Amino acid sequence: MSAPLLKLTGVTKRFGGLTAVNEVSTHVDAGEIVSIIGPNGAGKTTLFNMISGVLPPTEGRIELEGRDLARVAPHDYVRHGIGRTFQNLALFKHGTVVDNILVGRHWRMKTSLVEAVFHFGRPRREEIAARERAEEIIEFLEIETIRDKVVGTLSYGQQKRVELGRALATDPKLLLLDEIVAGMNQEETEDIARFILDIRDELGVSILMIEHDMHLVMDISDRVHALNFGATITEGRPAEVQAHPGVIEAYLGAKAAAARAEPAPLLKARAG
Questions:
Q1: Mean pLDDT of all residues in the chain?
Q2: Torsional class of 60: left (φ above 0), alpha (ψ -120 to 50), beta (otherwise)
Q3: What is the set of domains in the chain, with CATH numbers?
Q4: At a CB cut-off of 8 Å and minimum separation 6, what does 92 contact?
């Protein structure tokens, strides 16, 4: 059995006396879609921030293809194959769609300042390659009609798609999606669900996502990892996690969880 693409072992994050994430262990295999769920304040975004290098873990180990990411500078995470979208859009609102997607190609540019001034040879080749890749992503995400529009003039759903395109432009092995469908209507959500599956199936990119939309999570995830108060409740197949009493309690409260665990009145009457 091959080693996981991403592996978390005992990952913990403390802020003073507050433990935001407590000894979380999980993994993402190549070709998997894994979702992290939990109520607000469960520690999901803190965990994502550690995986993407925004925050260092207090304890534990995060590995990508066996490499300890603690030894990698945060700005180099993209070079090792981690791409990310953000819960709050982080686009250049005054730039066009093409401009924003090209930002994701910047790390591949090797051109020196002198070469850039003359714009000949390698600088020209790199720019052509970057623009070709940007156009491939635009076609993949079906945003050809807005490619030259200023991002700030687009709808929220369109901007989310542009941010997804910018993350894909980094050529990730692992794509982190932070509430990618938050604020979207049903049609937009269904489009994103289709793109996520295509990213995995056609581009060969593994996906780890935080998501509150349980329909999306249960429909497209291979595995689900449930958190509450920074700690793992359970992990497994979507149907197994959805039916777990601890997950039901985290979302609905202890009384609701107990009520769901009891037989229906008709069944109790028949049993008697």
A1: 86
A2: left
A3: 1-81+174-272 (3.40.50.300), 88-171 (3.40.50.300)
A4: 99, 100, 103, 151
Cα dihedral sign, 145-171-54-7: positive
- Sorted by sequence, the CB contacts under 8 Å of residue 50 that are 6+ apart come out as 11, 13, 21, 56, 57, 62
Alpha helices in 104-155 (DSSP H): 113-118, 122-140
pLDDT at 272: 37
Q: Look at residue 67 and tell me whether its pLDDT is greater than 70.
A: yes
Q: Which of 85, 91, 52 is nearest to 178 (CA)?
A: 85
pLDDT exceeding 90 applies to what percent of the chain?
69
Q: Are strands 67-68 and 82-84 parallel, antiparallel or unpaired?
A: unpaired
Q: Are 98 and 133 in contact (CB under 8 A)?
A: no
